[in-house]
Design goal:
Elements: H1 2-22, E1 34-35, H2 37-44, H3 48-55, E2 63-65, E3 68-72, H4 73-87
Antiparallel strand pairs: 1-3, 2-3
Length: 88
């Protein structure tokens, strides 16, 4: 039982570290070459569920490698600019 508590504590710490790391993106140059669903959620300020829904929508530049969904940075930026142009 004590091991479960430690594992949960480690997972919380790991998740906090991951969240801090993802929030360090200040411009497009600081993004990795391929973004994860969590990266997209962070950049757009939406939930991970919202980002997953976006990745499954027509026209969004996501690809699947094994079980992972990845988004190429250059195509994500193009998509984002196209969305902004539609609003203008």
């Amino acid at each position: 039982m004590g091991g479960s508590r430690r594992s949960a504590s480690k997972n919380k710490t790991r998740n906090k570290e991951r969240n801090v790391q993802m929030k360090d993106y200040t411009n497009f140059d600081s993004l990795p070459i391929t973004l994860s669903v969590s990266d997209v959620a962070n950049v757009l300020g939406i939930s991970r569920v919202g980002a997953y829904n976006l990745c499954h929508s027509k026209g969004f530049p996501s690809m699947r490698i094994g079980k992972r969904i990845l988004i190429p940075k250059d195509r994500f930026i193009q998509w984002l600019e196209a969305q902004s142009a539609e609003l203008a």
